[in-house]
Amino acid sequence: MPTSISRHVIGCALLALSSLATAQADHAPHIGPIDARAVWQERSLSACRSEESPTAPDVCLLRTMQRSGARPQAIAAAKMLVKANKAGFISAWRPLGKAALATVTYPFRANTNEGTLLIGSDGAAIDVDEGSVREEDRATPAWRAFTAAHPDSVPFAPAEFVGSTATGDGGQSVLFSTPLITCHACVDDGALLIAYTIDKDGIVRERKLLTIK
């Protein structure tokens, strides 16, 4: 079972290691716990973006959140992201049965200013944009066929939530689509379709590459 963030050392590698293995989620580190109280309604961060700001953007973000009366859970989530070298905050929350989707806003990025966390009922959070293509994905016929035709194409975050379907055991399967492109301004070469399996208790259990369309 995934352990909570209180039993982990929060480091810069934390988000980068927040992927699920194809077999079981308990074999992969995660970020969390996070719940709906982590949402912060953004205030002006223009001062934090200024080159004349006396503090670093991430420090300025946390101070702005504190001064605006952000909930402790929101500040804790932002600190977690900052320590992972991904300064941002939880800006939206979408219930998904016993699980949820959290939108992350990255206010200081030039591109890809939003991301998505899949939140299990235990508060464990999976960054669906991290490690979009795994070693096990590269071994699939679908990936080999795609890369043969588009050798320079790569996943371009953020992933888009496609939908959720019920499973026979009372859980659900959640589907995300990530564009595959050769360059930022290029037309999509395809899309990576990834499914996450959530059990009847709301725990994220499995990740699987379904296909490339």
Low-confidence stretches: 1-31
Structural class: alpha+beta
Q: Radius of gyration, rounded?
A: 18 Å
Element-level helix/strand string: HHHEEEEHHEEEEE
Distance between the termini: 33 Å
Counting structural domains, the number is: 1
Q: Which word captures the global form? A: flat
Report the mean per-residue pLDDT as an integer. Answer: 82
Into which percent range does the helicity of residues fall?
10-25%
Number of helices: 5
Structural features, described:
The structure is a single chain. By secondary structure, the chain is an alpha+beta fold. It has one domain (5-212). The chain has five helices and nine strands. The chain has helices at residues 46-49, 57-67, 72-83, 135-138, 141-149, and strands at 89-96, 99-105, 114-119, 125-127, 154-155, 160-166, 172-181, 190-198, 204-212. Strands 5, 6, 7, 8 and 9 form a five-stranded antiparallel β-sheet that branches. The two termini are 33 Å apart.
